[in-house]
Each structure stands twice: as structure tokens, then as C-alpha cells.
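SAMPLE LOG
Freezer: B-3
Tube label: C17
Construct: single chain, 253 aa
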Amino acid sequence: MKFIYSIKVYRLKHYLIILVAALFSALLLYVEKDEVAVLTTAMGPNAIDAIKTKEKKIAITFDISWGDKHAIPILDVLKKYELKETTFFLSGAWAERHPDIVERIVEDGHELGSLGFRYEHYTSMEENEIEKDIRLGEHVLNELTEEKPTLLRTPHGSFDERVLKTADKLGYTTIHWSVNSEDWKNPGTDQIVKNVIDKTKGGDIILLHASDSAKQTAKALPTIIEHFQKKGYRFVTVTELIEDVNTDTKEVK
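STRUCTURE (predicted):
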């Protein structure tokens, strides 16, 4: 009996040591690193929508899936303000039709991410169709830029556990957003500015569009940029925003 009791005491001490070490490690990570606010599956793959940080750094992102009228004016505004640290998410079908604009985005120094190929809701597709669409988008961007994209924004921001796992399997980090400008609704430049500046804090990922459906974004952009510059914010690419940070997760069913 004493032998059995000794074993139990030993195991209890062993587990307590492991628990204390784990809590200490978690505390160190919390203190030393920023946190990423993410939507995640029970098994791990996630969609990052923001970073919890005390630093004044934010990521402006643009989605493009249609048209060629508004992308260049937006790029001109960014160039005027010498702002290169933005991330453009492109659908493969659009990029295939507008290689000259893709070239301009890259030449201006902006980061590229993928919107897949067809820009259709992934949640309505089978897993093999999702994988095929991601690979097609990857192929186009790789052919045009000679670089494989590593960031994926799902078309329409639509995803579930299957989508996240498929993207993760293909080597992608899925990027969502925490601030929606709703610029595609064309509510007026003042409202677009308000939608962004009223809701944005350090660590946020801002969703804007450079498709032809967003007719007022280029006009709203200078006010948005100037506001955050005056407030001391630093613009960073999505990759810079999320690198070397800890995660804070919410499960996706």
C-alpha cells in the first residue's frame, strides 16, 4: 500500500510541475509578445482578423476581384503619401486579365495575397473544389510575380472549418479583417472615413476595396491616411503585423 501511495504522490507532483511550467511559459508569452485575435478550428488552423497590441500599428488591405478603373487611382494616392506597407488581395481570374496592374502593385512595393481564383463562396464548395480554386489563384500570381503567395483571404470573407484546414494544408495563413470600411456600398466618402477611423485601434486589419464596385475609396483614402498619421499610427503589411506574435483564439464550428 505504501508503494502504491508513493507512486500516486510522485505522479501528482509530476503533474503539478508540468502545470506550473506551462502556466509560467504562457505568462511569459503573454507579457513578451503581442496577441493575435483569430478565428480557429479545434485542431488549430485559423483566420487572423487582428492583433491585440499596445503599439500603434495597423494594416490596410485592399481586395480586387473586378474591374480596372479604380485600382490605379488608389495606387496613385498611396504613392503620393509614400505608403508602400499595404497588402492587396487579388483574385486569380482578375490578375490574369490585368497583369499590368499587378505589375504596378508589385513595382510600388505593396504586399500581395490571394483571393483564390474565381471569387466564389468557399463554404458552398466541396473540399476538392476549394483546393483547386486556391491552387489556380496561386498559379496565376506565381506566374505573374515569380513568388508564391502565402496569405489567403477567402472570397467574400466566407469560411468554415473545412476551408481553414484546406488553406492550412496548402501552406496559407488565412486573413480576415477586424474593421470593415463597407466602401463597396458607396455610402459617401465621409461615411467610409467614419467607418474606418471610428472603429480602428492598434493591431487592426482594415478592409478596403480597389474593385470597380468601390467608386469612392480613392477619394476617402487621403483623409484616412492623414488621420492615422496625425495620431502617430504606423502602417504595416499584414505579414509584418502578424509575425512573431502569440494567438488568442475563438473556435469556428
